[in-house]
Design a protein that fits this description.
Blueprint lengths: L2 H5 L5 H24 L3 H25 L1 H4 L5 H23 L6 H32 L2 H12 L12 H17 L2
Helix pairs in contact: 2-3, 2-6, 2-7, 3-7, 3-8, 5-6
The structure holds fe (ii) ion (FE2) (2 copies).
One fe (ii) ion binds next to helix 2, helix 3 and helix 6.
């Protein structure tokens, strides 16, 4: 679907919130699969799927959600805090990428990472997303829905480390938002 076709789809800030919350549910399920994996190879595979999806989700938020929340009354500090948490999560993923998925340290580090991601998603849902319901312009809604709909596309699963995946996803979403 092209950007032009997608942007004709109307929606509200509530639809943006629903899309973000649905993605949080998917991330929770993907994290559980990493924890439940039966062996190291399955755990590595589940972790790769998770980090590919998470890179796109966080990139979509960084491009189309946090900047909008940041313009709401009292939203600047809230959005900034979420960005700091995302930077922290990226550092945790970097450490996990360097570990053997079958090692006990991976299990410990992944448990901490899962807790941080859960807390981050809860903070977004409680503190940041309510700001969007009030403050999003129709253009911002259309752009955010377009970008969020592109999260998880199989052809953009991503390659390389998390930082590279994040950079590629941000570039892709920026280009989508800049398209007429
Ligand atoms: Fe986020
Ligand atoms: Fe999120």
């Amino acid at each position: 679907m092209t950007g032009i076709e997608q942007r004709q789809v109307s929606g509200t800030g509530r639809d943006v919130v629903a899309a973000v919350v649905a993605q949080h549910g998917r991330i929770t399920a993907m994290m559980r699969e990493v924890g439940d994996a039966s062996d190291a190879a399955a755990r590595r595979e589940a972790f790769d799927v998770l980090r590919g999806y998470l890179a796109q989700h966080e990139a979509a938020e960084e491009e189309a959600v946090h900047p909008v929340a940041g313009t709401a009354v009292g939203g600047e500090a809230v959005a900034h805090q979420r960005e700091l948490e995302e930077t922290g999560a990226a550092q945790q993923i970097k450490r996990l990428e360097e570990l053997d998925a079958g090692s006990p340290s991976f299990g410990v580090q992944f448990g901490l990472f899962e807790e941080a991601v859960d807390a981050h998603a809860t903070a977004e849902e409680k503190e940041e997303l309510p700001l969007l319901e009030e403050s999003m312009s129709p253009d911002a809604v259309a752009a955010a829905l377009e970008v969020l709909a592109a999260v998880g596309a199989p052809e953009h699963r991503g390659a390389g480390d998390f930082a590279a995946m994040l950079a590629a996803a941000r570039q892709r979403f920026r280009a989508m938002m800049a398209a007429p």
